[in-house]
Design brief:
Blueprint (H helix, E strand, L loop, with lengths): L3 E2 L16 H17 L5 H31 L12 H32 L2 E4 L6 H14 L7 E2 L14 E8 L5 E8 L6 E3 L5 E5 H7 L1 H4 L4 E12 L12 H12 L4 E7 L4 H11 L6 E4 L30 H5 L4 H7 L2 E5 L5 H12 L3 E8 L7 H11 L3 E6 L7 H13 L3 E3 L6 E2 L2 E9 L2 E9 L11 E8 L2 H16 L9 E3 L4 H17 L6 E5 L5 H12 L4 E5 L16 E6 L4 E2 L2 E5 L11 E5 L5 H5 L1 E2 L1 E4 L3 H17 L4 E4 L5 E3 L9 H7 L17
Parallel strand pairs: 2-7, 9-10, 12-13, 13-14, 15-26, 18-23, 20-21, 21-22
Antiparallel strand pairs: 1-29, 3-5, 4-5, 4-8, 6-7, 8-9, 11-18, 12-16, 16-17, 17-18, 19-27, 20-24, 22-28, 24-25, 25-27, 28-29
């Protein structure tokens, strides 16, 4: 990739600011994602994927973050309560930066379509002139679209129909047979494919809206089409829940229905739409010009991920098969025997998530397993994790599942899973009032030689087989007594509200995480002042919490070296004289989505020494993770897994060149020019097995 730089967040008049705005920092993250779609060194199919991801990310940003800001305005707030930022001014900055981002998306799309054409794949925005193709598309429309759509001619007796969140539609201006002007709207069903594959030689795909536009005569015979304009809408997707309702599932179901009717926060409209159409949409949706975005390309670019169904393999990243840890193979697939032998950390997606699935499947059928406790935040609708829990309950084991119903956009799926688990006899709990259960933990209690032994899994990512193939995360397996006791106390807290007093190997949010992190940072400051080795190395998705950032600034001013890998939002300003001179921040954006959280403190030793405190966590450094969620920070003690996390994972992340963007004091990110010889942490992890999973392959190396 050539050298690149994103736009700054701060201008010259804001040099005295201590923090970057979180919304603008998030937009800068999505600009880095889009840069992968613009990168000619990436495979063509992957560039299309990154374009669709950037569009989908931006949609969620509007549905959640922008919607939240507009709610504050509607409630009479002029400034953000905690940040003292003018909300109207911030919304203006967001819309300006978002418009630039969307313009870049529309600029790269024709380039990608042109590259597809060079590969004999045609993506057509109009139907071909060939009569045979037109006849085939006409028949396809009659058979596959016409029965599903309800065209609405707008008049006093036919009001504008309701459009669900993320809905697409087509506005029509027509002239009736008696020369009367009229307007009509067609809602495109969500289950319509975005592309129609034409028969014949080569691969030719036509946008479905082009097929509909060309077939208007089948809907309005003898009418003349004057104009047709596509639009899409995004609605406020925040939901409000009464956590103390008698029936929490019923409360969620009502809230989910209400969410479909949230206020429109963004309407994307074809740039060539006539002014009367624009006025009509503005009135029908109850919005003003601030909610519009005009596009000279297709709407809903997130749907272009459907193109990947047609992309040949040679236009994608080379296939990668996750490894299964040799250590577990050495024990003939017996997860418990392998864990008894030594702690294991499985590094996803480089190592298979199948380990987690087999661990629970084995627990479900093992006659010596007596109890299973499991948290669930996000998983698939046909989750093998859920199936294993159901099987375990049916086999007479005591099974408890703590399901977070408030996992955004997974609420409906989690409700269905909760019902299925409950029907099977699983004890289902929904967590704690006003707190999201975000920690990832499983506890299996097994009878061995007349004693009860606890096996614990602590993860940095979700129990989700699909995302585990894309997100980089860590799965820690152990039968350490202290970890097992901590896990029991944490689960007791989730089901009985009894806060754990003392945990031996971990600490949890919302009560312990910030105070413990503060103590560790202050200890580094003290060590630095006393001439002892000091340092802080953090890997997270987002760094937002101002109180924690102020502590990092204090450490930097004392001379503590700090290196941060923050993939997404970072409100900390690095490299500012007198504020943060010893802090560097990089964002790693590449083939896989960096998701695992690792927190390392020197603790009086040089980096990579046995003295370092090494923790993994489900938590980012955001106010919600530290104060409004239940999260777990787990300290690693086993020498092999410490070496794996420090020497293998953290060192590779800090050496990365190909995927790294460096945060500048003004909020811009710089990607330095790289070539084939530049180091990529993702490529390294794909080709180097994790230390704790080596087993018999390690020989004398693995004696920790």
């Amino acid at each position: 990739m050539n050298s690149k730089k994103t736009d700054p967040i701060l201008d010259d008049s804001q040099k005295g600011e201590s923090f970057f705005n979180r919304e603008l920092s998030w937009l800068a993250f999505n600009e880095r994602v889009l840069s992968l779609a613009e990168d000619e060194d990436k495979p063509l199919g992957e560039r299309i994927r990154f374009l669709a991801i950037s569009a989908d990310n931006l949609n969620e940003f509007f549905m959640v973050r922008v919607a939240g800001l507009r709610q504050l305005v509607d409630r009479g707030f002029k400034r953000l309560p905690k940040d003292d930022v003018d909300i109207d001014q911030l919304l203006m900055q967001i819309m300006e930066r978002s418009a630039k981002l969307m313009a870049r998306q529309n600029q790269v799309l024709p380039e990608l379509i042109g590259c597809l054409h060079d590969e004999n794949i045609q993506v057509l925005s109009d139907i071909p002139d060939d009569d045979q193709d037109r006849l085939w598309l006409e028949d396809w429309f009659i058979d596959n679209v016409l029965p599903l759509i309800t065209p609405t001619t707008l008049d006093p007796s036919h009001p504008f129909p309701f459009f669900h969140n993320d809905g697409k539609g087509m506005m029509l201006e027509l002239t009736s047979p008696n020369s009367k002007p009229m307007q009509s709207v067609i809602l495109l069903p969500a289950n319509l494919p975005r592309f129609v594959k034409l028969p014949g030689d080569g691969l030719r795909l036509v946008l479905v809206e082009a097929v509909i536009r060309a077939s208007i005569v089948k809907i309005y015979p003898r009418h003349q089409l004057v104009s047709a304009a596509m639009f899409s809408i995004l609605r406020d997707s925040e939901i409000e829940i009464d956590d103390e309702a008698n029936d929490l599932i019923h409360e969620f179901e009502n809230a989910l229905r209400a969410r479909q009717r949230g206020n429109v926060v963004l309407l994307t409209l074809s740039k060539d739409a006539p002014k009367p159409i624009r006025r009509l949409l503005k009135s029908a949706m109850g919005i003003d010009e601030n909610n519009f975005f005009d596009t000279d390309g297709p709407v809903a670019l997130n749907n272009f991920s459907e193109l990947l169904d047609y992309i040949p393999k040679h236009l994608l990243f080379p296939a990668f098969a996750p490894r299964f840890p040799q250590r577990i193979r050495d024990f003939n697939g017996d997860c418990f025997a392998a864990i008894r032998n030594k702690d294991i950390i499985v590094h996803h997606p480089y190592e298979s998530f199948e380990v987690v699935v087999r661990y629970l499947q084995q627990a479900a059928t093992d006659p010596d397993v007596l109890a299973i406790r499991q948290t669930l935040y996000r998983t698939t609708s046909n989750s093998p994790i859920v199936k294993a829990l159901i099987q375990a309950a049916e086999n007479g084991k005591t099974v408890t599942a703590v399901i977070e119903l408030k996992a955004r956009f997974d609420e409906r799926n989690n409700i269905q899973l909760a019902r299925a688990l409950g029907r099977a006899g699983v004890q289902v709990a929904y967590g704690l009032t006003d707190l999201k259960i975000h920690l990832k933990m499983s506890l299996v209690v097994r009878r061995e030689h007349g004693k009860l032994v606890s096996y614990t899994h602590v993860g940095t990512g979700n129990y989700h087989p699909i995302t585990a193939g894309i997100y980089t995360d860590l799965s820690y397996f152990t039968c350490d007594k202290d970890v097992g006791r901590d896990a029991y106390e944490i689960f007791k807290y989730l089901t009985s509200h009894v806060q754990p007093d003392k945990l031996k190997r971990s600490f949890i949010s919302p009560h312990q995480s910030f105070p413990q992190l503060k103590l560790m940072i202050l200890a580094e400051i003290e060590n630095c002042k006393n001439g002892l080795p000091s340092g802080i190395w953090l890997k997270c998705n987002s760094l937002v919490d101002h109180r924690l950032i102020e502590l990092l600034y204090e450490a930097s001013q004392a001379g503590v070296p700090i290196e941060i890998v923050a993939r997404g939002i970072c409100c900390l300003r690095p490299g500012v004289a007198g504020l943060s001179e010893t802090i560097t921040v990089r964002s790693i954006i590449g083939r896989f989505l960096e998701h695992g959280r690792i927190y390392v403190f020197a603790n009086g030793g040089e980096f990579l020494s046995d003295k370092n405190i090494v923790m993994i966590s489900s938590a980012d450094l955001m106010p919600r993770n530290l104060r409004r969620r239940v999260e777990c920070f787990m300290r690693l003690e086993n020498p092999t897994i410490r070496k794996q996390v420090l020497h293998q994972i953290m060192v590779a992340l800090l050496r990365d060149e190909k995927n790294s963007w460096y945060l500048q004091p003004d909020g811009s990110y710089v990607h330095l020019q790289t070539d084939e010889t530049s180091f990529s942490c993702h490529e390294y992890f794909m080709s180097n097995p994790s230390l704790s999973g080596l087993g018999s392959l390690a020989g004398a190396q693995d004696n920790g």
